[in-house]
Design brief:
The chain is mostly helical. The radius of gyration is 20 Å and the shape is globular. The relative contact order is 0.12. The chain has a single domain (12-196), classed as Arc Repressor Mutant, subunit A. Helix content is 46%, strand content 7%.
Length: 201
């Protein structure tokens, strides 16, 4: 893949990360805006670590072998990256497995899924909007939407959702929610992103 080189602020240290992220089914089309976004989300050390991730989950021991970083430093970096939504940490049978999130659908969305103070979210939101809209014929929009095969689709198991309509009172709605045993409601990432741009969804 060809990469951009335009001078001092071209973020050359991000090229291995971009190459690694492009191994996912939906890659990230290289551009100055992408590099600026990644430089805001990843420190140089985190970008280098992310570039060494396998395509599947890995233990801290496996990442230690791949990177040569000491385990304590790796743990600190991985915890920071998990807090940012860049990696997913998956505890299983006494071991934690780490998975590098793809850009789309992945850390681009997770960036806006929690209230953060460590990023200039208005700037990130603007850059992401511009990135998705730049060069429509060969840019990121084409990477995601440019195929006749849908990337995502909701499949409903018809028998699981009975066809019925009823209006319930607040009290009954509360009972239904409590009987469900749990759940969450949140603002979608796109609405949150647009809010940081001073726009609505």
């Amino acid at each position: 893949m060809g990469h951009l080189t335009s001078g001092k602020a071209d973020f050359q240290h991000l090229i291995p990360l971009i190459d690694r992220l492009n191994q996912y089914p939906v890659g990230l089309v290289d551009s100055p805006k992408l590099r600026e976004i990644l430089s805001l989300l990843f420190s140089e050390e985190e970008a280098d670590l992310a570039a060494h991730f396998p395509l599947h989950e890995a233990t801290i021991g496996e990442l230690e072998e791949r990177t040569g970083l000491p385990r304590d430093r790796l743990r600190t970096l991985l915890e920071s990256m998990a807090d940012k939504g860049l990696v997913m940490d998956l505890p299983f049978r006494g071991e934690t497995y780490y998975l590098l999130m793809p850009g789309v659908i992945g850390f681009f969305e997770f960036t806006f899924m929690k209230n953060r103070t460590d990023l200039p979210l208005d700037r990130v939101a603007r850059l992401m909007s511009e990135y998705f809209r730049e060069r429509p014929q060969e840019g990121q929009a084409r990477e995601f939407f440019g195929t006749r095969t849908q990337m995502t689709r909701a499949l409903v198991y018809d028998d699981a959702i009975p066809v019925s309509t009823r209006v319930v009172s607040y009290h009954n709605a509360r009972e239904i929610i409590e009987a469900a045993g749990g759940g969450a409601a949140s603002m979608c990432y796109c609405r949150h992103q647009r809010e940081h741009e001073g726009k609505s969804c």
